[in-house]
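Example 136, ligand zinc ion.
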Amino acid sequence: MGNHMEFTGGCVCGGTRYVLKSRPFGLGDCHCIDCRRSAGAPYVTWGSVPHADLVVTKGEPRKIAHADRIRSFAACCGTHLFFEGSRDSDTIDVTIASLDDPTPFAPQKAIWLEDKLPWVMLDESLPTFPRSSQTS
Ligand SMILES: [Zn+2]
Ligand SMILES: [Zn+2]
């Protein structure tokens, strides 16, 4: 493994593609209702990278502002790709499952347990949080 790792990903139809120039960190499952709806899935696994380390190489994500957050979806087919918590954030979150190889990026925490569906089984070995794991 070198210092110049790149991780590619994209939408379901192939019309939108991106490259991460660094390894995503802060890996976690978010059970909040907004992630659930946005992805059409019980929860979403996220990882963060510095803004500069995310490069869209094909297509153009469509940005949707909701609840003071910006979610980006592939304009071609609607795959949920990115999440920005605030305008001045240094990092951007990426849906780990949109990576070509999500295998190395197992979640390390589960957040927004307040909204978790009762039939989703949690990994008891991971830390959990009622809401965000951040103090801000
Ligand atoms: Zn969420
Ligand atoms: Zn697409």
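Summary: Residues 29 and 45 are 4 Å apart (CA to CA).
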